[in-house]
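INFO  loader      accepted 1 record
INFO  loader      residues=255
INFO  predictor   begin
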Amino acid sequence: MALKNYLDYDGLLYWKQKIQAWVSAKFALKTDIPTTLPADGGNADTVGGHTVASDVPANAKFTDTIYTHPNNHPASMITEDTEHRFVTDAEQTKYDAAYTHSQAAHAPTNAERNTVVGIQKNGADLTVDSTTRKVNITVPTKVSELSNDSKFQTQSQVSAAISTAIGNVTSMEFVILKAGEYNSNGVPAVTGSVGKIYLVPKTSSETANIYTEWIYANGAFEKIGDTAVDLSGYIQDSDMVPITNAQIDEIMAAT
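INFO  predictor   done
INFO  writer      dumping tokens
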């Protein structure tokens, strides 16, 4: 395993001494800084045997510190910002052309005006009310207000048609036909009457369908159904088997 170093007391003391030596070499101690100025006002150093406090007259100008702003100067001397920018002659020409174009009329004299010239209903002109300055287009809200081109029937017409159709039927009678009263196709061969349902026996193999039902309408027999009943989706008594004690024990023992 690789060795791991740690800092003990002696090492920390040595590190402190190194820091103190480095600070002493880089910085002056507080005790080394004078607390008062020299007697000459602090101008201990002189330039060419002169001091500023005693030898430089008031309002004196130094030639190397005087700046004279020129009357004419290039734009490159000025720094642009977001609100102060320069425009070249070429850019100014484009701006002037754009402004001139914006002040000119652009719509052609022969353009079609976007103006409503009239209102029609199914191709016929409507008159604008001179008082309200509006056009009222009446929209049908009832079926009776529409043209009955498809011959729709009203409720009263349907009721009347049903009453007429069954008006002669006073009761409903079931007639079971015997052999010889129907043909080989199972169609009744007797004289039909309105208000009766003719039952034609089915073959013996069709145990769930005993009769085929017919009515007499519009001068002919019409098949309307049969008595077949589909019980394939129902459960039978034989399908019901009680659970055994062994099965109960098996269920209780399951974990």
